[in-house]
Amino acid sequence: MLFHRVKKFCLLFLFLNVISSCVFFRPSPAKLYKRALQNKPYDVIIVPGVPFNGQEWSMPMKGRVIWACHLIKNGIANNVIFSGGAVYTPYVEAQVMALYAQELGVPKEKIFVESRAEHSTENIYNSYCMAKQLGFRKIAVASDPFQSTLLMGFTKRRFELPIDHIPFVIDTLAGIDDVYPKIIPDSAKIADFKSIIETQSKWYRFRGTRGKNIKFEKE
What we know:
Number of strands: 5
Order of helices and strands: HHEHEHEHEHEHHH
Number of helices: 9
Number of domains: 1
Strand order of the largest sheet: 3-2-1-4-5
Helix content: 40-55%
CATH topology: Rossmann fold
CATH class: Alpha Beta
Distance between the termini: 52 Å
CATH architecture: 3-Layer(aba) Sandwich
Radius of gyration: 17 Å
């Protein structure tokens, strides 16, 4: 068991280093985190979803959920919106992440779920609309450095309220990685599931990743 945990930790650490080194990230995650500490607390953080295989969380999901819990527990954010539908597997990504966050000690009343998004741009837009409806004004995206880089242009162009980014910092995340929550994911599983690969063409999915399928409403 100990060997298995050490192996998983090493794989996670390797994953974090790969995604951070393969992206020319400016400003750096550390600088953005320092800025977030100065601007805290945020009313809410948006955490985009990751597919779930029904057995255990993947390294990307683990990193995002643990980082979100860190931000909540340390008073950097007051609430979290997990976003993501059942896209590639029958499990609603946002609901699975919410279950893990609760197991890690985040109060249920601080967790909100947006379960319609199929692409990262929709994660942001749908969650932003939810945040405004809930009365949240100070908003940030909390994800990995790679995804944050891809979404920065989108968040800067589209929205009335500013959206900050708090990508996870590898050194900080590695120090809190040694957690192994267990969940029962049945409540997050939907019946009669069809993968997005079956329901959407490659071109339509490509448009979705760029936010082209979103019907933006006037703010």
